[in-house]
Design a protein that fits this description.
The chain is 37% helix and 19% strand. It contains 6 helices and 9 strands; from the N terminus they run αββαβαβαβαββββα. The strands form 2 sheets. It has a 7-stranded mixed β-sheet with strand order 2-1-5-4-3-8-9, with helices on both faces. The termini are far apart.
Length: 217
């Protein structure tokens, strides 16, 4: 009587789940669609070119000459303040400080420049103390003073921002006036945008546009 040969062990069957393959297919389709959307979406509109600034050189809070030559190749955001201002300047400077924090990822690729509209009073020493008060990173944020008429020529004639005095009394702080828009300038010294510092949407656009210029170089 012959002994029957042992049966071959059954091989495990490969699991096949329609649900699993469906999920994998959906994920693959999603990846392909996302890639197609990125490839086909239109490039963002270029920022307007609103004209070149005239060359300028003033005195920085550390006493060094500083101007458009030192800013060459670096986009920057400008604002206009004076240290003894009791009204809009403290808030304007706080917003510049917030911009400094929000753009820390681009670092020194984006400069910040505050121009004094009261340069006779705002010595480099006073500007240095003011910079410290607002937590300025002096590697990025410059405060400039200099000759009043030259500053006025740059601010009014170049940046197209208002500034002046209602009278000749240097003690009349309330007689000093200036605009409250941020100005975005590219690395060639061309104005690329104006942003109302009192408009939250405008300042949000400023963050995006400034970082975009900094990354584009």
């Amino acid at each position: 009587m012959s002994t029957p040969a042992p049966a071959s062990p059954a091989l495990p069957r490969r699991a096949s789940s329609p649900l699993l393959w469906g999920v994998l297919g959906a994920l693959l389709a999603g990846v392909l669609l996302a890639g197609a959307w990125v490839a086909l979406r239109p490039a963002p509109e270029p920022l307007p070119d609103l004209g070149a600034l005239p060359a300028f050189t003033f005195t920085r809070q550390d006493g060094r000459p500083f101007g458009l030559q030192q800013l060459q190749g670096h986009p920057f955001v400008a604002n206009f303040i004076f240290t003894r201002c009791p009204t809009v300047c403290p808030l304007f400077s706080k917003k510049m400080a917030a911009l400094q924090g929000r753009t820390k990822d681009v670092g020194a690729r984006l400069a910040l420049v505050s121009f004094s509209v009261d340069p006779k009073y705002d010595t480099p020493e006073r500007l240095s103390a003011y910079a410290h008060k607002y937590g300025a990173d002096e590697a990025r944020w410059s405060f400039l003073t200099g000759d009043y008429e030259q500053l006025k020529g740059t601010i009014v004639g170049g940046f197209k921002i208002s500034m002046g005095r209602e009278n000749l009394d240097d003690a009349d702080v309330m007689g000093i006036f200036h605009g409250t828009h941020f100005v975005l300038v590219d690395g060639r010294g061309h104005v690329r945008g104006y942003y109302d510092s009192n408009d939250a949407e405008a300042t949000e656009r400023l963050v995006q546009d400034a970082e975009r210029l900094a990354r584009e170089g």
